[in-house]
Amino acid sequence: MARLWPEGVLNTEAEVRRLHRADRLVLQFPAPPLLKAWQDAVLSRMFYARPGEGERLRGLPVLVAATAGNVPEAYGPAGVNLYPLEELLRPLEVTAHRCGLAWSRPHLLFRANRLSAAELDAAGEAYAVRLRRWIAATAQAVAARARLLPLAAET
Q1: CA-based, 20 to 30 A from 39: which of 57, 70, 98, 103?
Q2: pLDDT tens-digit profile of 38-92?
Q3: pTM as predicted
Q4: Contacts of 33-36 spanning 24+ positions with Cβ under 8 A
């Protein structure tokens, strides 16, 4: 998003059009504050101010891909973060549920800033595999949405 809106100013109309054309949505972290601004501007508009726009996204598969600099053990009752990273992502899951999006188990990478080049390559390949599997697993839902919402591709 930072590349699309380098000045930090969102074009909400363009973002709504992009979502209406999308067959899936991936939210990647760490994300700049622009992601929160995007959620507030785009999703709030689509699901509260203009609910007809949001209704067209019903069933859209969504996947969160998050990286963390800390070790997995830091995300638990004995860790500095107290909760598993998946639990800390629950507000996004709740947002997806509220918007009628089809939530998928997040893809998580720990120690992201401490990985060797070989480990980063392996992590990138694991992410690519996860994306391919997710795309295959959501293919029927995407096809069903396309049949129900033929105008989505035209917007």
Answers
A1: 70
A2: 888 999 999 989 988 999 899 999 999 999 999 999 999 999 999 999 999 999 9
A3: 0.86
A4: 34/1, 34/2, 34/5, 34/8, 34/10, 35/1
